[in-house]
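In response to a reviewer's request, we include the raw inputs and outputs for one of the modeled complexes. The two entities were modeled together in a single run.
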Amino acid sequence: MAAVLAAALGVLAWLGLLAVLMRATRTPGIPHTPPTGEFGAESPALVDFLTGGFKLCDEAASATVLDLAARRIVAIEEIGPELSLVRLRSDADADSLNTYERMVFDHVSRLATTDRVVATGALAEGARHLGRWWKNFAKAVRDEARAAGLSEARWTATHRSVLSIGAAVPAVLIGVVLAVFEHGADSDPIGAFLAGSVITWAALVFLQEKVNDERGTLAGARAAGHWFGVQEHLANGRFADQPAAGVTIWGRGLAYAAALGLADRAVVSLPISTPADDGRAWSDYGGMWHLVHVEYRGRGPWGRFVWGRSPGDAVKTGLKAAMVCASPILVLSILATAILGHPDNPITFAIFVTILVAAVPCGLAALDSSSPSTVRGQVIRARAFAQGRNDGYRYWVGVDDGKATRIHAYGVDVQTWNGLAEGDEIEARAGRWLGWMSDVRVVSPSRHRGNPIPADEVTD
Amino acid sequence: MGVLIVLAVLIVLGIVAAVVVVGMYNGLVHKRNAVDNAWAQIDVQCKRRHDLIPNLVETVKGYATHERATFESVTAARTAAVNAQGPVAQAQAENALTAALRSVFAVAEAYPQLQASRNFSELQGELSDTENRIAYSRQYYNDAVLTFNTAAQTVPTNIVAGTFGFEIREFFTAPDSERGAVRVQF
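The model returned the following structure tokens for the whole complex.
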């Protein structure tokens, strides 16, 4: 009992030490600054970091695009309410960009077509792994803040040593408790002690590192206070409804307003840190960026059930559906005969409808197998969606052939899906009725994009 | 009592029909405004191009004094484009102007000093960007026209469109050389 009490006290003491150190290392109070229109030397991304509690918020990347436009590295041009362009300036001096600005510039450059243009909505597209890209972006901003003495890691080496070594005490005490309570023929007190100690120590160190976030320095708190003053000043500027192209008029003011959470419309129109939408894809097939809506089902009542399936799978689905529907159809037919007097022979009618349910997919499969058409275009979406709980995934490929702004994605097998990347120009055989694609040949590989998630990494 | 029920049903049906018609009418107005807005964008870009051309001609004239026929053809094409009315005529005039500009840039290739001129290269870049903006504006306009025309021609919106005088719009056609991949190169 004494050992348990000692272990509990040990853990509490360590948690108390952690709490004391956290309080001692918190960000200094941010001073209130009166509203001011004076922009400091910090970039919009850094301002976002300072005013976001020393954490980077989603607006930072969009604000950086606006900042690049304000500094004439790129231009943002409005073509219409739903279409704006980011144009790389031919006379842009990209050498002066810092790490995270360069990341944004490189992303835009990779997406830009030969005429140096990318639609603002298409900024979500691209080959990058968004999670990794954002992590690197945030790290680059944090590094700049640290270099400028505006922020630092919560724990110094001393804090870390004190906490890690201190964690050994409750860990050992818990190990002792486990060793003491280890009874029985197969008991292993030493093993219990070691396991308990190591696991406890690892858990406490994990907790210690979990709370090791970024903290503002005194200079950082002052800078944050200044930027809150700017935020108060800009709040009167009605930036919320300004489009991204408004940067031509407002300059860096709009970029800072975006970083300070005051320019929602401009931020939303520059989805550089947003995952690409499954149903709305931007395609540059044909040389000009355009929006294509992608549907993962076919037309008509059967489109939901058989579209995207191979002919064999469609036949199986039809037979399965017939078996499932047979009983309800029979019951409904009998009820209809009893109440309405039609059909005359409910059993024959039910058999006919059931055969029809099975026959339609079989007929469509036969049509597609006998006369597949050729599709040529650019892969604009490659997606894998779970089907049911334990039925694995269905693999879809949306192909923009330049003829329609609304397309139906084709179903493919996993091998084909793995061999394709978004942006690939392909030629393939595809069924008109089932939407199953086969014999896919890559005519020209993706210029700037890649499959976002390999099939073996797809998880629920 | 029966008459009252019939009357009530007719009134409800009338209200529902009126709401549907108003919805369709407003939808058509929104789509028509989107077309007008998109056309205004083309107009702005075309005007910008027209304004750049006199400077270009003057710059090229300074180096290539003997290319009078080329300058005259560009000037005539510009005048035709400025005076063109409506999408079809405007598209034809702009396409002719693009062809005339290409001939100017072809002429310029024979004059290395002109090629080296900063003013000329800036004008060339500006015209190229403007041409690209026109291409995007055209795509945007044609999408808006397609949306509007589809609504105005399909049942049941076509009844409302016909009743209230919504007329289908003309597409701004691209030059044959720009169909498919668009490569703006002078």
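As requested, we also summarize the result in words. Residues 124 and 170 of chain B are 30 Å apart (CA to CA). Helices of chain B lie at 2-61, 68-83, 87-108, 112-116, 118-153, 157-163.
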